[in-house]
Write a structure and sequence with these properties.
CATH architecture of the largest domain: 3-Layer(aba) Sandwich
InterPro entries: Ser/Thr_deHydtase_PyrdxlP-BS, TrpB-like_PALP, TrpB-like_PALP_sf
Shape: globular
Structural class: alpha/beta
Keywords: Lyase, Magnesium, Pyridoxal phosphate
Helix content: 40-55%
EC number: 4.3.1.19
Radius of gyration: 18 Å
Strand content: 5-15%
Number of domains: 2
Pfam family, one: PALP
Largest sheet: 6 strands, mixed
GO molecular function, one term: threonine racemase activity
Strand order of the largest sheet: 1-2-10-7-8-9
Amino acid sequence: MVQLEDILRARTRISSTVKVTPMMKSHQLSERVGAQIFLKSEHLQKTGSFKIRGATNRVIQAKDDEGAKFVTAASSGNHGQAVAYIANQLEVPAKIVVPTDATTSKVNAIKEYRGLVEFYGTTSAERIPRAKELADELDGVYIPPYDHPHIIAGQGTVGLEILEQIDDVDTIIVPVGGGGLSAGILTVIKEKNPDIRVIGVEPEAGNDTAVSLDRGKITAVDGTDQTIADGLRTTQPGDLTFPILQKYMDELVLVNEDEIRYAMSFVMERMKQMVEPSSATTVAAAMFGKVHVADEKVVCVLSGGNVDLGKLGQTLVKTEGGS
């Protein structure tokens, strides 16, 4: 299991690539929720999401320790962008396997970072075996999106920054897909201050972790491609991430598609910040009372901001009160 020391070493390793992202405060959101709401702005991170943290940590070690001369990844977009970016920086060729319905802007970004793209299936259960197959065929190294110690440790650096940016934080709300981000943050928080609550949030249409936690074992679910939160469309949590979530996560809540759309629209309209639906799940959880946080200091992790502008009009909804 990943330890705090692994995450501290990861921060040093990735520091020349990864930015320390700002912590924003929304007064309107705070008033609505009845708590001090802060937004950890990973949508402003290099490549547009937190994924660059884990990808950088893993690809650097794959090259330096394993002599990788080629890497592959399976990704709905953000992880693929991150792997393509850091691989290009390190002059390691990369091929990214993306779903057939991948967001156009994310695919274009992968190509701009000189990553090769292959479209394959619609779920992670389809993409991951294909990416591993390519790595085997081309004598490369597969870079998983979440289920690897180096990935988890890299993502955990978000937790280190939260503790340094907000004094006396009470609750952290984090989106849950495969579990790399949540597992990394949980490791930091619970090893440093176990009194801080960490709440995970999933879309109702992508509730594989909720089902797995309820059954006490990793359980695959169907239909995760029905949620607009494309970054959270995993069919099951990871073998390495799930035990960390089981051990440390205080609670997992679900939000529906309308709540995600409203939260995304609210952040864009009131804060002038473009976040993707996966990010908006944490704001939705606070806005719609899924988490009881009255009078607390709360951090909502905004995991990414890579939005397909061509589909933006279909995603946003009207919020009351105007801008």
